[in-house]
Amino acid sequence: MNTDPIADYLTRIRNAVMAKHRIVEIPTSNMKREITKILFEKGYILNYKFENDCMPGKIKIALKYHPVSKECAITELKRVSRPGLRKYVGVDDLPRVLNGMGIAVVSTSRGLMTDKEARSLNVGGEVICYIS
């Protein structure tokens, strides 16, 4: 049993990037699905596929690499709020990752979104992770 499934999700992606894998498979959950959709919308991954819509399903993520330099679009994944220490912020204290070049995934009362979307909707919440 995994005590922090989001940290496991980020670690699997981080390990696949370091090993230069093209595809990574991750066990699914609703929050992992939403984070995957955000990664796709913001251009950090090439594509994704949810297999087996019931809960013991898998998420297949195709990682995005630069065609010439072979560098991955994801350079850093950092877990912020964890089960032992939750990090909640108001709209005025929402973090900026790499001065706006990266994103922070925030869990709000309106669902999972990036820090920029949360600022525009004027909502705060729990900072899940930083992605750059």
Topology:
Layout: H1 5-18, E1 23-27, H2 30-41, E2 45-51, E3 58-63, E4 77-79, E5 88-89, E6 103-108, E7 111-114, H3 115-121, E8 125-131
Antiparallel strand pairs: 1-3, 2-3, 4-8, 5-8, 6-7, 6-8
Describe this structure in words.
By secondary structure, this protein is of the alpha+beta class. The chain has three helices and eight strands, in the order αβαββββββαβ. The protein has helices at residues 5-18, 30-41, 115-121, and strands spanning 23-27, 45-51, 58-63, 77-79, 88-89, 103-108, 111-114, 125-131. The strands form two sheets. Strands 4, 5, 6, 7 and 8 form a five-stranded antiparallel beta sheet that branches. It has a three-stranded antiparallel beta sheet with strand order 1-3-2, with helices on one face. The longest helix has 14 residues, at 5-18. The radius of gyration is 15 Å and the shape is globular. It starts with a helix and ends with a strand.
> Count of helical segments?
3
The amount of helix comes to 25-40%
Provide the β-strand percentage band: 25-35%
Main beta sheet strand tally, sense and closure = 5 strands, antiparallel
Rounded average pLDDT:
94
CA-CA gap between termini:
29 Å
Number of strands: 8
In the predicted model, the low-confidence regions spanning at least 5 consecutive residues are none
**Rg (CA only):** 15 Å
> Helix and strand string, N-terminal first?
HEHEEEEEEHE
The assembly state of the depicted protein chains is single chain
Outline, from the CA principal axes? globular
Secondary-structure-based class equals alpha+beta
